[in-house]
Amino acid sequence: GHTGTGRAHGKAILFGEHAVVYGAPALAIPVPRLPVTATATRLPSAGEGADQISFAIAGPGTGSATPVEADDLRHLVAEFKVRAGVTERVCVDVLIDCAIPRGCGLGSSAACARAAVLALGDLFGRRLDARTVFDLVQVSETAAHGRASGIDAIATGATAPLYFRAGLARELPVAMAGEGFPDAARAGAAHPWEFDGLFVIADSGASGSTKEAVEMLRGAFERDPRTKETFVREVAGLTHAALRDLGEGRVDDLGARLTENHRLLRDIGISTERIDTLVETAIAAGGRGAKISGGGLGGCMVALADDPRRAETIAGRLHEAGAVRTWVVPVGRFASYA
Ligand code: MEV
């Protein structure tokens, strides 16, 4: 065909960001109400020469379509050609419509790359398996972040909460409820478990660079390996405990662990004053726990609420405290958990 399309969506990390880069497990949820669609269009190509690829992105904060971190995505096209066995000269225009605010820790870079990979696959009639898609997204994530664990590459295509550690990604048997989860009602109806918690995600309005945060920690950990070991061990413990809390419906315990994970991230310098204020605000408003989410140094935070009205109250207070956008994501039902 003449055009190809690909889709992905946002994600929020609940536990384990940064520690996951050093092998700790992490938990993330997909945020399908922040969709990304890429459209790849073949351009008329005259004769021989280098590939001609242009990327543009449209979405909140970008005004009209603006050129993206084109270099990160360009690596991806070269690797796509190798993996997909495309030998001809490629002349394409890729337009990405990204509803995820950028620099916010919600996975915009990985989601744009994932949507672009799928659009290229569609345009060239290649059926890319999950591993190939992951590898290709990682090419651009590694270029964008220097060192990428792969959690964003998976979570931006996941349909259920995700347990992730290096070399292992497992979607949890949870049917998420609400917008963007068409199968939730059906899957949930068949199983007894129900987790009543809802996550409130808030954008602090100050963007943070994941690359800078990852590099800062790498430097600090090289100088002080003991701090790294302690941080990674403590976060891993929280993630494992949180997994059990989720499966057994313990909202209060899960919340306390969120706040504990926030403290660990704050102590190693990943949080900001603005985010700390939002975390305190969410807890004062009745949140069961709260933490920074994603790359940090700004960006987003996430709070846990035990019912929808409380979630709305928390969202309102977060706006009063300076959050520029909030989203409520219900977790839904656990199909089963072992
Ligand atoms: C970014 O969403 C998550 C980090 O842990 C980086 C990574 O895992 O690649 C900060």
Q: Would you kindly provide a written description of the structure presented here, covering whatever features stand out?
A:
The chain is of the alpha+beta class and 338 residues long. The protein folds into 2 domains: 3-174, Ribosomal Protein S5, domain 2; 184-334, GHMP kinase, C-terminal domain (Alpha-Beta Plaits), CATH 3.30.70.890. Helix content is 41%, strand content 26%. It contains 10 helices and 12 strands. The strands form 2 sheets. Strands 1, 2, 3, 4, 5, 6 and 7 form a 7-stranded mixed sheet that branches. Helix 1 packs antiparallel against helix 3. It is globular, with a radius of gyration of 20 Å. Residues 182-192 have low confidence and may be disordered. The structure holds (R)-mevalonate. (R)-mevalonate is lined by residues 13, 17-18, 20-21, 105, 145, 148-149, 151-152, 210, 214, 294-295.
Helix run count: 10
Instruction: Assign a percent range to the helix content.
Output: 40-55%
Low-confidence parts, pLDDT < 50 over ≥5 residues?
A: 182-192
Question: Total strand count, please?
Answer: 12
N-to-C terminal Cα separation, in Å?
A: 45 Å
Task: Name the shape in a single word.
Answer: globular
CATH class of the largest domain: Alpha Beta
Largest sheet: 7 strands, mixed
Count of folded domains? 2
The ordered H/E elements are: EEEEHEHHHEEEHEHHHHEEHE
